[in-house]
Amino acid sequence: MGEFWPVADVLEHLAGRWQVERTVRDLASGDEGLFRGTTVFGPLEGGGLLHQESGTFTWQDVPRPAERTLRFLPGAAPGTADVRFADGRPFHELDLTSGRYVADHPCVADLYRGEFTVRDADHWRTVWRVGGPAKDLVLTTDYTRVR
Prior knowledge:
Elements lengths: L9 H5 L1 E11 L5 E12 L5 E11 L2 E13 L6 E5 L4 E5 L5 E8 L2 E11 L2 E9 L4 E10 L2
Antiparallel strand pairs: 1-2, 1-10, 2-3, 3-4, 4-5, 5-6, 7-8, 8-9, 9-10
């Protein structure tokens, strides 16, 4: 199997509750932030999953509540997902059949490049590298399934 754990169906695999820890590093300033919370992948009417994340984000020693919502829809190929923002705008595709996937998301003048890796049935990670004229960030998120 190697270092990655293949996932036959990304939507089936992600369904449920996950503990989340995300570090945010600003490579230009050296500042670091930390998000801790929960992500729930619940059923979405019409198929797919509603991703709801909530927790606390601490930046420069100031904790604040934080949340986000995404939609994980069935992808073009079996077992894949079409990830969209809450308002329906496209974000990226996701195919974990090899246990690893790289996605790009252009956002105005910035480029978000995400690497998704699955370690086993209960652990996966995303690393987003964000570069552009105003951003130079690395966001690393570890997910642990809550049983």
